[in-house]
């Protein structure tokens, strides 16, 4: 028996799609992953999701899961192992998914929504993992509000890092940018904005070795072993002479007092499973583009034409959320694209399969 739709991913995008498709009586099968929930479960408080002044990320996911199940969605906390898409001369390609457990092997489905999300790249420090959600974050838009009149550090040197730093200046009293090189990779306009902002101070040629704190972030250990002090510019000297820096025993290492650390060294979309199956951009994000559907079997009216905004390069395969979003990466935008994908799947099934 063919499934109407299989949703791969149990974050805001996948669960929003599940709610809509379940209410449309399409009985979606959701593979939420193991562990389920995506990045939102790693967030402490969420204050920018409409309808909730403040809610824990894990609690928000749980509410969405219960709502989807209430309307008839089936949620399985398993990871998808393989995806097969065989193109044929027929209007609808054949699609199969296989999960990790033997119970879910090679499930045929009429359509797929890919909502596997993206992961922030981290420094891979034990202290970073321990203090994640306790002052360590990868999203200034999500968590900047909690650092009003505090001192924070942003790790990175690309556009993302500089954007994060500028966003944080709306809340924090002081923002340090810690960068391992003596120049930024970011665009010129972003560099100018950072240079002109008096709240931002750059510490060049430095890496973070450890994040200090037991229950909350209290500081970071900065290694400046790459720093050639004889060739410093005045701006570098100003940063490395900061009153927040305390010399440690090793002359190349210093302790910087901060209340929060924002890691901004990039994101990696969880799309390895789909390489060679659907079109990806150079960073691995799934490309979605307006795709004019084939006419239905009846081919009678213009009603049978529909512009699919969330369809991938393969007919019947849609993508939503952070795996197809290299810009916004917000829970609410993921949820919105999940709804879009669900509405398009419903239309696709009516047009291409049912009639």
Question: How is this structure best summarized?
Answer:
The chain has 355 residues and is an alpha/beta fold. Helix content is 24%, strand content 24%.
How would you characterize the overall build of this protein?
It is a single chain. The protein has 355 residues and is of the alpha/beta class. It folds into 2 domains: 201 residues, 3-Layer(bba) Sandwich (FAD/NAD(P)-binding domain); 138 residues, FAD/NAD(P)-binding domain (3-Layer(bba) Sandwich), CATH 3.50.50. The protein is 24% helix and 24% strand. It has a 5-stranded parallel beta sheet with strand order 5-2-1-9-23, with helices on one face. The chain is elongated, with a radius of gyration of 23 Å. The protein starts with 5 loop residues before the first strand and ends with a helix. About 8% of the residues have low confidence.
Radius of gyration: 23 Å
C-alpha end-to-end distance: 18 Å
Query: Which structural class best describes the helix and strand composition?
Result: alpha/beta
Quote the CATH topology of the largest domain.
FAD/NAD(P)-binding domain
* Overall pLDDT: 86
CATH class of the largest domain: Alpha Beta
Walk across the major sheet and give the strand order: 5-2-1-9-23
User: What percentage of the residues does DSSP assign to strands (E)?
Assistant: 15-25%
Number of helices: 8
CATH-level-2 architecture of the largest domain: 3-Layer(bba) Sandwich
Low-confidence stretches: 227-241, 293-304
In total, how many domains does the architecture comprise?
Answer: 2
The biggest beta sheet is recorded as:
5 strands, parallel
How many distinct beta strands?
23
The 3D shape can be described as elongated
CATH superfamily of the largest domain: FAD/NAD(P)-binding domain
Helix content: 10-25%
